[in-house]
Amino acid sequence: MRDTSTPTVVIGAVLASAATITWLALVAAYWTFTVDDTFILLRYADHVARGIGPTWNVDGPPAEGYTSPLWVAVLAIARGFGATSVLAPKVLGVLAMGAAIALVARLAWRVAERTERGAVAIEVQPALASGCAAFVMAAWPATAIHSVSGMETALATCLVAAYALALVETLETRTAARAATAAALGLAASLARPELNLFVALASLLALTRLDGPGRARFALSVLALHVIPGAIYFAWRVRYYGLWLPLPFYVKAALPGTTFAGVDEALGFARALLVERIDVGIAVAVGVVGARRSLAPLALAALAVWLFFFVPAHEMGFDHRYPFPIVPVLAACAGVGVARIAGWLRAPSGRAWSPAAMASIVAVSAFASSAPHLAGSLAEKRDYGAGIERAHARIGRALHELGGAIDRPVIAALDVGAIAYFSQWTVIDTWGLNEPRVARTGRRDAEPVLAESPSVVIVVSSRADRFAPHFEHEQALWDGAHARGMAQVARFEFLPDYQLLALATPGSPVASALEAASSTRASALASAEPPSARAP
Q1: Which of 111, 213, 364, 510 is deepest in the core (most CB within 10 A)?
Q2: 440 and 252 in contact (C-beta within 8 Å)?
Q3: Based on the domain organization, do 91 and 125 belong to the same domain?
Q4: Exposed/middle/buried for 466, CB within 10 Å: 0-12, 13-18, 19+?
Q5: In the predicted model, is pLDDT for residue 466 greater than 90?
């Protein structure tokens, strides 16, 4: 059923337009923010594109320091087509998030349409639901941040939105084509973020309980053929290739002592930011789920399960609720439907024509009011981060790469390994453990095994610029051990005032001279930098 209420259609269109403009403005404002971990994914993608395989070091055993094989594959394909700049993951992220917002709007419209047919006493207007859903998602600054960060979050969010829409349409139409689409999108979402296996599995099981005999059989067979079997084949391959049951980041974030239930504060912070500080959204989500139980309950319960899961692992690099963010499309769609239902209730008793406009105004004002006090600080933080990556990590990586074949042992040990590894193309010992099986499996960040590999450069993090004050306690032993082997601080690169990268190397060596020279030159623009693979090694 089409929404024939002209004022409501106009209100929905205005909200959708405002959502798009707000999101694009925030994308432009946050554009220089690129996460260091993005360069970890780019390094894996570069190795895949060059035929080396999805591994960390060219000359080392396979190491799985990533948790999004689909995003690595997408970036590798992009590199195969010549998109080798750091711009590639940022542009692809913006496109994916834009598609996610559009899919959320469509999902809310579709659910509201169904709700309208089933609730005669209350007029639930799809245009209002669609516009509000898009606005709830697009006007949140976190959405723009995850659009440009370069991480897989935007792709995962887009696939959750697409899967949710396909599942709702499967429940409505019960056709084989819709069932196959939902199953295939479920697999894609699971390969974008591993915890989305939980989301897809629970949503699919709940959907099966709402389908009749033939529809249930079609959907079950589709899930088996297009998700379970291909997923099992991939899992078996990666276990054989890497020799571990799970990716290395899992061990660092969830399996080591002291990491259990390390994500409680971050998980609660996500709910507080979206559903408590935005109390209008929290109420609308509840109303939407209750009012459209058949369509939204499976998705809402699956989203709840993912949120509860994130109480367990540590949210390393969990900026702006990165880990639970992919469930936002479900919450936004529920909120949009809830707003439309509340507007219908207000309008029902005496035909209050102003109710859609009033509800739309509440959503818009609340969104801006909740974001405005924090926006300036958030922008400053993200811009400082982006500039810091340019003047510290990327500059170190470029300086090392320019040495080419002048170094007998191009090996570097560092904790922040993204841009340094990507731009240098050296062998990199990850002292934190996300790409180092020994550290990830044991949790021991001892200096001796690192120094035993005779790195030419050791990078440690200091909270002070005038002397070494270890930002991470375990690096004191690395500092002392490097000095005992004749290394010394040869350069300092400021990421942030309280986060200094100190480079240790043998004094007088070509590496020491290159880093000393790099520390005194201006950083170049990160996004426009020529990728290392395009230059002569």
Answers
A1: 111
A2: yes
A3: yes
A4: exposed
A5: yes
pLDDT at 340 over 90: no
Q: If you count them, how many residues does the chain have? A: 537
**At 523, is the pLDDT very low, low, confident or very high (cuts 50, 70, 90)?**
very low
* Three-state helix/strand/coil letters over 251-283: HHHHHCCCCCCCCHHHHHHHHHHHHHCCHHHHH
Q: Please tell me the predicted confidence (pLDDT) of residue 510.
A: 92
Three-state DSSP class for 200?
A: helix
Tokens 């912070």 map to which residue?
Answer: 269
For residues 189 and 19, the model is more confident at 189
Residue 491 bridge partners (DSSP): 503
Whether residues 125 and 27 share a domain: the answer is yes
Tell me: do 391 and 299 sit in the same domain.
Answer: no
Q: Are residues 181 and 65 in the same domain?
A: yes
Q: What is the pLDDT of residues 423-448, one digit of tens each?
A: 999 999 999 888 888 887 888 888 89
| Position 503 in a domain | yes
Question: Could you tell me if 408 and 369 lie in one domain?
Answer: no
Report residue 450 as tokens. Answer: 């690192």
Parent domain of 190: 6-374
Structure tokens at 184: 């295939």
Position 144 in a domain: yes
Distance CA(48)–CA(54), nearest Å, equals 5
The pLDDT mean for the chain works out to 88
44 contacts 56 by C-beta, under 8 angstroms: yes
Q: Which of 311, 343, 374 is the last residue of a domain?
A: 374
Residues 280 and 419 in one domain: no
> What is the arrangement of strands in the sheet containing 488-496, beginning at the earlier edge strand?
427-430, 411-414, 457-462, 499-505, 488-496
Indicate the helix (H) or strand (E) that contains 344.
helix 328-347
Residues 399 and 348 in one domain: no
- Paired with 461 in beta bridges are 501
1 located within any domain: no
pTM across the whole model: 0.91
For the segment 13-41, what is each residue's pLDDT rounded down to a tens digit?
A: 888 888 899 999 999 999 999 999 999 99
Three-state DSSP class for 445? coil
State both tokens at 299.
Answer: 């998705």
Compute the chain's Rg from CA coordinates: 25
CA dist., res. 502 & res. 306, Å (int): 39
